[in-house]
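Revision sheet: structure tokens.
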Amino acid sequence: MTDLSQARLATLPAKRQVAASFSRAAATYDSVAELQRAVGGQLLARLPADLQPERWLDLGSGTGYFSRTLGQRFAGGQGVALDIAEGMLRHARGQARAGTAVAYIAGDAESLPLQGASCGLIFSSLAVQWCEDFAAVLSEAWRVLPPGGVLAFASLCAGTLHELRDSWAAVDGQVHVNRFRALGDYQRLCADSGLQVLSLEALPHVLHYPDVRSLTHELKALGAHNLNPGRPGGLTGRARLLGMLQAYESFRQPAGLPATYQVVYAVLRKPRSVQ
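Predicted:
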């Protein structure tokens, strides 16, 4: 297993931008990662009960929260933490304890720097939504999993943060909110991957905030603010900003302003008998 070179990452501007954004957020990420911990916990609960991998991969490992959890759950196995953001990996190494990941690798989910049939479990929570070529992610999972190995991922799909998107749409036509692929695309690509789909479903996860600023501050602290091509540059006009805030108020509930995340949970297995 080897690190992807900086030159490899430098040829991918969009990925470089994602890596830089999450690297900058490494120190603040865990303080605002309520959604990430909840979703990862739901994904862990969906793993097959009889799964005992000799080696597992935390794909998009971030600050290492679930690398530590996986290390405790699969105490007899060896763990690998892989992320495209080197700042996150440095933070995770600093938080590492005995029994968690044995290797921390800078790498790309679409081109894993791992040997074939080397990981009995690939666990990925809220990372693959940033991968443009999800078919390549699935192809790499097929290559790295041995027969009987499991890919478990949680991702975001279309409809995520629709309240914020609709509120901006009320005042201008620019891209202010990250776009995500449709649930149907996940279903189609997983069905075509050759992996057995044990489960695949999308569930909403709603968080509430006292005001829009609290939401946007959290997105920035996570490194998950607007990263899409076509996003507006420079400052947003005061009138448009006030219009967006007013539009968002129409969604207010007793608990506060809702922010809905549409989360895809999927568990796939490489067939035990591969032709």
